[in-house]
Amino acid sequence: MTESVLDYMTRLGRSAREASRVLARASTAQKNRALQAAARALDAARDELVAANEQDLAQGRANGLDAAMLDRLALTPKVIDSMIEGLRQVAALPDPIGEIRDMRYMPSGIQVGKMRVPLGVVGIIYESRPNVTIDAASLCLKSGNATILRGGSEAIHSNRAIARCIAQGLLEAELPAASVQVVETADRAAVGALIAMPEYVDVIVPRGGKGLIERISRDARVPVIKHLDGICHVYIDVAADPQKAIRIADNAKTQRFAPCNTMETLLVHQAIAAEVLPPLAAIYRDKGVELRGCAATRALLGADVLEATEQDWATEYNAPILSIRLVDSLDAAIEHINRYGSQHTDAIVTENFTDARRFLTEVDSSSVMVNASTRFADGFEYGLGAEIGISTDKLHARGPVGLEGLTSEKYVVLGDGHIRT
User: Fold this and answer.
1) 140, 129, 145: which is closest to 207 by C-alpha?
2) Are 274 and 331 in contact (CB under 8 A)?
3) Which residues make Cβ contacts (< 8 Å) with residue 345, sequence separation at least 6?
4) How far apart are CA 137 and CA 206, in angstroms?
5) Which of 167, 212, 245, 407 ranks highest by number of CB atoms within 10 Å?
6) Residues 106/350, Cβ–Cβ less than 8 Å
7) C-alpha–C-alpha distance, residues 362 and 331, integer Å
8) Bridging pattern class, strands 390-391 and 399-400
9) What are the tens digits of pLDDT across the range 76-115?
10) CA within 13 Å, CB half, 353
11) Of 188, 202, 260, which is closest to residue 228 (Cα–Cα)?
12) SS3 per-residue string spanning the chain
């Protein structure tokens, strides 16, 4: 009799729960051995990884995937290098599990403190990017969590090849194979099952398009760490260094178009616009970026700038399209960001310390930057080794979610025969 999707997912969930109990007590050295062995396995399997990925790319092209999606899907030598480096970086990070803090004596004589512990089983649902398989597996493993990975059907061959390398690492470290499980079926019912198993899964992390994340957030019976949009802004202040501003605004938009930390709206103080916008517009045009602007922007840059609509300010393009708005003050810039932004990543370019501090304090986003490109909002760049996702929630984890975001704390109490009277 053929196993149903529900039975299959239940089996994965049960195995993950059992593995999580082993991982919770695994030593740091054992977890690091698994990560280093997986890195070696990836390095040795480059040809296999590229061949599997080419199957996915060929299918993607046949199915009409756009250039941005194919870019996310590709396992280039540089991406494989980054995956290997990510595993090694996570292995080198301090292990948060078992750390005890804030131990203090109470008037009764007991000691009370907090110990950092794994969440348990983490379910990750993601699209396109097969490198997420490594990022998620490495962070969950180091933080003592079992994980169930459900990648997109468009990357299924790549994810299976990567999973074999992870399995090799677990085997060499004598950790349960179920510590990291990649869902083998492309049936969408697998997602519905995964998000509705609180007895086996402790948290869900969705990584993908807005539609996927809205569905997960609506239907999940398991807590979700999420972000819906990456509507990121750069604000060029009246006190900006023009050369810094041009360099940052160029990089924030054009270094890559698809990631969630790419700038979608450029805000410019009207007093500096004539100095920075024309050279920026020339750069954008050379790189094929479509510009949409407010009336003042169009008057300054010319008729080829399309008129920006209300919808443009609230849109994540993931494409070579940029909205530009001139503002008359820092207050107007902050108001625009807090109204239209997605609480992901926003940056100010300024040499004015007071403006910088106000921006950091008043912009309500998970990452707020001064004189730096929004493209730095990334777990790897933040020194987390990798990230499991970026959270724009305010509870539990916010911003790039690394090892600490995959843990919780419990109270520990030490006594010596103490009783309450």
Assistant:
1) 129
2) no
3) 230, 232, 261, 365, 366, 367, 368, 369, 374, 377
4) 14
5) 245
6) no
7) 10
8) antiparallel
9) 999 999 999 989 999 999 999 999 999 999 999 999 999 9
10) 0
11) 260
12) CCCCHHHHHHHHHHHHHHHHHHHHCCCHHHHHHHHHHHHHHHHHCHHHHHHHHHHHHHHHHHCCCCHHHHHHHCCCHHHHHHHHHHHHHHHHCCCCCCCEEEEEECCCCCEEEEEEEECCEEEEEECCCCHHHHHHHHHHHHCCCEEEEECCHHHHHHHHHHHHHHHHHHHHCCCCHHHEEECCCCCCHHHHHHCCCCCCCCEEEEECCHHHHHHHHHHCCCCECCCCCCCEEEEECCCCCHHHHHHHHHHHHHCCCCCCCCEEEEEEECCCHHHHHHHHHHHHHHCCCEEEECHHHHHHHCCCCEECCHHHHCCCCCCCEEEEEEECCHHHHHHHHHHHCCCCEEEEECCCHHHHHHHHHHCCCCEEEECCCHHHCCCCCCCCCCCCCEECCCCCCCEECCCHHHEEEEEEEECCCCCCC
- Tokens of residue 322, six digits: 């940029």
| Residue 349 identity | V
Residue-wise pLDDT for 189-246, tens only, equals 999 999 999 999 999 999 877 788 889 999 999 999 988 789 999 999 999 999 999 9
User: To which residue do tokens 């869902």 refer?
Assistant: 183
Residue-wise pLDDT for 62-74, tens only, equals 999 888 789 889 9
Distance, CA of 186 to CA of 321 (rounded, Å): 32
Which residues are 420's β-sheet partners? none
